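Good day; I would like, with your permission, to put a structural problem before you. A protein sequence and the structure tokens that stand for its backbone fold form the material at issue. Thank you for your consideration; the sequence and its tokens are set out here:
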Amino acid sequence: QVQLEESGGGLVQAGGSLRLSCLASGRTFENYAMAWFRQAPGKEREFVNAISRYGTTYYTDSVKGRFTISRDNAKNTVWLQMNGLKPEDTAVYYCAATRRLYSDNSGAYDYWGQGTQVTVSS
């Protein structure tokens, strides 16, 4: 069982930066691939990026070059550094964990955080 808790969301102007954190409970964090998804009002939840247990990273095209995912297994934490934020990045951001190597499909993830709101003003 893994429990996830996100933090770090907020309101930022376009072009600004935010760093989201996801703290995981449990002693086997290093065995999970971790991902960030987001869901904007009226839209489906979409994949943002992921990091495998080996540290390999995957990004959706719309955030490449702007967002960075990283993890520290000793701290049971994964981060999402978001730079160059745009109004279209406004969404609730969710942290998720899977025992698979990696997936961009939300259905592959077994554990989810409660989400943190990111709002980017123009």
